[in-house]
Structure of Amino acid/amide ABC transporter membrane protein 1, HAAT family:
Amino acid sequence: MNQLVTILIDGITYASWLFIVALGLTLVFGVLKILNIAHGSFYAVGAYAAASFVGWFGTMQFAPSWSLVAMLLAAVAVAVLVAPLCERALLRPFYGRDEVLLVLVTYALFLILEDVTKLVWGVNPYYVTDPYALFGNVEVGAQSYVGYDFMLVAVAVVVGVAVWWGLNRTRQGKLVLAVIHSEEVASSMGVNVSKVYMLAFGVGIFLAALGGALTAPMISVQPGVSVGVIIVSFAVVIIGGLGSIPGAAIGALIVGLARSLAVHTAPVAELFSVYIVMAVVLMFRPQGLFQRIQARKI
């Protein structure tokens, strides 16, 4: 029984930050129709920025609780500084071109950002310890868990609800949904599609950076963290359905539980568990679990 509880808690914890990252990826695809290979690099930049911001707050003698504010500010800074530059300078000239070309552009951006992070932060690992100790330990049965993990789950729920509310209950969100359903019709109705693209890309980058910032206290931030994240994030959105927000949530939960089950019962299968689940889902649902219904072409 204790092992089952441990598997569930570890799987949900892993799924929580993965959902935040995958949510940004699926939002960018849903609006811009771009498979953003560089999404994992924005996650890494967010993690590095969080490490720097938390360290700076520490040198300024702020209370440890301010490290959470530092992580949020790091994600905002990455979105504000990086998103406009990447969207306007690199992606916008290629809108309307072949999808493969856009994938190559984002792959080139991934390679650039990998080198930029090494130039800015070096190759030595960074450790962010202050936020991880803020919430103490939580006793669940006979097991003790880090309270930060439960906070991360709560943040993922808040982020998911906030994105859903923003898309479905605000005017700007309705414009984004209009562009998702039909870019041409939205443009003919006077919607500034370029502005919507910029907004969606900025939010997507913020979510990737936020995921990196929140996981920085749980990992060693070092070169290469972006590669594994982008692979698993793609698995999540493929399982859930490209462009589907509910699919990102269900896909993250499936991947998190599958990985946790493999870690605790068959560690040698951890690397393959995600791909096995993805293959099984695609056998029965080639378009993913929550793929949007496509309009029939005549």
